[in-house]
Structure formats: C-alpha cells, structure tokens
Design brief:
By secondary structure, this protein is α/β, with parallel strands linked by helices. It has helices at 24-33, 36-43, 57-64, 123-136, 150-158, 170-185, 195-202, 224-237, 255-290, 300-305, 313-328, 334-342, 357-370, and strands at 80-85, 93-101, 104-113, 139-145, 163-166, 189-190, 204-209, 212-217, 247-248, 251-252. It folds into 2 domains: 24-259, 2-Layer Sandwich (Nucleotidyltransferase, domain 5); 300-370, no CATH class. The protein is built from 13 helices and 10 strands. The protein is elongated. 24% of the residues are buried.
Length: 371
C-alpha cells in the first residue's frame, strides 16, 4: 500500500507462508495442542459458527452413533482407566471407566449419583461405588478429582486400590481438554448414547489465556460428566504437551527455542559446577594456609621454664608425670640424707658429707635420661 507522497510499500498481502518458523512440524503440533476451532481461526483464517464452542454436534453424534454400547463388566486382559468427580448437593458425583484398543478410546461405563439438600450423597456410598466399579473393570489407575475425596482416597489406597488424588489446576486442564477435543475431531473416540453427556459437551465453551486453554460451561448445566470423560481420555492417551514447555497465548513455542534454553541451562550448570570446584580448591588452600601449626616438642627443662598459663595441657601432664616418676625413683644425696637424719645442717659446724660415687652416678644417669 502506497500513496503519491509516500511511494514506498508499507503493507502487502500474500496467501503463501513466508515465515521460516511456521513449518509442517510446527503446524502439526499446533493442531494437536489447540482446539479445532481455535486452530482454524488462527492458522487457516477460517471463522465458523460458534467459534468459541468446545465441539460440534456432528462430532459428538459421530462418537455416540458408532454402535458402541455401555458395558456391564470388563474383558479379561484389558486394563481400564477410572476417573471420579465428587459432588454432594448441586453437583452430581460421577464416575467413569474406559480403555484404549487399536488407538481408539472406548468409554465403558458412566455412573451418576445426584444428591439434594434433604438427601446429599454420602461418602460411604461413593466409596462402595468405587469398589464395585473397580471389581467390574480392573483399574490400572483411579483418579479422584475433588478435595472432598481425600478421606475416601486414603481409605481406598489403604485397601490396595491404585487411587490417585487429582488436583484440578489450570495447567492440567489446559493440557487435558485439547486431548478430548482432538479425539472427537479425529473420530478416535467411541461413546455410548448418553443424553446428559451430549448436552454437557455441546454446552462447553473455551477461551485462550496466558496459561493455555480454559474450558467452561455456559452456566445452564454442570459439566461433571464431561469432566469425567476428559479424565478418562487424557489418562489413556496421555498429555499432548511435553512435561516441560513454554506457552505464548496458549501455544507451545517451537522446539528450537526449547533446545536453546536446554543448552543454555546445561551451560549454566557446567559453569556453576566449575565455579564451585574452584571455590572448594581456594577454600582448601586458605584452610591449609591459616591452619595453626603443630606445637613444638619441648624438653622437660624447657617446660619447667614456661609459666603455667603458657604450658599446654599435654605439656603440663608430661611435667606432672616426670615429677611423679622422679619422686618414686629419687635417691637422696648425702646432703639430703644428712638433713633428713639431723633435721638441719650448719656449714660452719658440720662437716659436709661426701657423696658415694656410685650413688652420684645413678643420680646423674637418671637426670640425663629425663633431660
């Protein structure tokens, strides 16, 4: 688009895709994680009636008119996924069981317990219903979505049933609702005719937020049966998104960005590891540098010349042992013997006693041994 004053082109329109980021793999992933109407609007530039509807009547009827009927009990060799949504007064308590075979998911049972103000649904009744459904359809896992089911889940888990308390977060809902929608579009879901379930599915709407797809009902009826169906389908098919993903307007970014962030995280981890190693080495060197050197080995004479406050406990003990041993092995000199015998010594009057050579030699040897 240009004018006479501005001949440069500022805007133009092309039907072909010139972006190198929009690849076939990217579109395939977008189709998997988005609702069908959302994908048609964002990538095919196609606006349909009821653009915010979760599914269409043709998709629901195709799943319910396939000839599949509700089963009375499971078949040998099959493993079933169970899902329960608890309610007491306004919301019903609903339980569902299903299995997957040949890439197609089959809903085998859908049980409803509706309470009222006068007769609310009792938890012991629900507990017994969960056990009965598990006996009819051997479960691989039983997921319970409600804080009210904490006590029941703990009791059933203590009895050996594979019960898991399911936390209904917005992130989990954004991952599981597209799985159900894509199963309806791809015709890989088999439902038996159920008027309440059909009404709830057609009553669902969606909106895209920062955390992904948010599915709600229009307020006329509760979506408890649809929630149980979503839980069974997502439990059998698994989440479409990888466990660790980035979102932008409910869409996962390309794998290139994910790999780049992973490489960056690996590099940061290696840098942190190298930094910690260098820090440990520096600390070891500092510790060796400032470690107090070993105390010198002093002789008895050197220890005697030290004050009591300077001597270490080991040196004081060594000195005490020396004195004790010297006391036991002491041989009196002639002067000491004279003083002990007479009590006093007068140099001007008494003759200085002479020492026995052998005794003095023993004293000299003992003294030198301790020095």
């Amino acid at each position: 688009m240009s004018t006479l004053l501005t001949p440069k082109v500022f805007w133009y329109y092309r039907q072909s895709n010139d972006s190198p980021l929009v690849t076939a793999a990217y579109l395939q992933r977008e189709r998997a994680i988005q609702l069908p109407s959302q994908y048609a609007r964002e990538h095919e530039n196609c606006v349909t009636d009821g653009a915010d509807s979760f599914t269409t009547s043709s998709e629901v009827d195709a799943a319910m008119q396939s000839g599949w009927t509700e089963q009375a009990e499971g078949q040998a060799g099959r493993v079933y996924e169970h899902f329960w949504d608890f309610g007491s007064v306004h919301d019903p308590t609903v339980g569902a069981a299903g299995h997957i075979e040949g890439g197609v998911i089959y809903l085998d049972s859908l049980t409803t317990y509706q309470g009222s103000h006068d007769a609310p649904v009792l938890l012991p009744v629900i507990k017994q219903a969960i056990i009965q459904l598990a006996l009819r359809f051997p479960p691989k896992r039983i997921r319970i979505e409600s804080w009210q089911g904490i006590s029941v889940a703990q009791e059933l888990k203590a009895e050996g049933l594979p019960v898991v308390l399911f936390s209904p977060t917005s992130k989990v809902h954004a991952e599981e609702w597209p799985v159900l929608a894509n199963r309806l579009v791809s015709r890989t879901l088999r439902l038996f005719p159920h008027a309440r379930l059909r009404e709830e599915l057609l009553n669902l709407t969606y909106e895209v937020g920062p955390s992904g797809v948010r599915v709600t009902d229009k307020g006329r009826i509760h979506n408890d049966h649809a929630v149980c169906l979503r839980g069974v389908v997502a439990g059998l098919a698994g989440p479409v998104l990888a466990p660790w993903s980035f979102f932008s307007e409910g869409r996962a970014l390309g794998s290139t960005l994910v790999n780049t962030v992973k490489d960056l995280a690996s590099t940061v981890a290696q840098s942190i590891g190298a930094g910690l190693t260098a820090t440990d080495q520096a600390l070891d060197q500092a510790q060796q540098k400032f470690t107090k050197p070993a105390e010198p080995i002093r002789t008895i004479r050197q220890i005697e010349n030290l004050d009591e406050g300077v001597r270490s406990p080991a040196e004081q003990q060594k000195l005490d042992e020396f004195y004790e041993t010297r006391k036991r092995n002491h041989i009196d000199s002639p002067l000491e013997a004279h003083v002990k015998r007479h009590g006093v010594y007068f140099p001007e009057r008494d003759t200085m006693p002479t020492a026995d050579n052998e005794a003095m030699e023993r004293i000299r040897q003992e003294f030198n041994r301790w020095r």
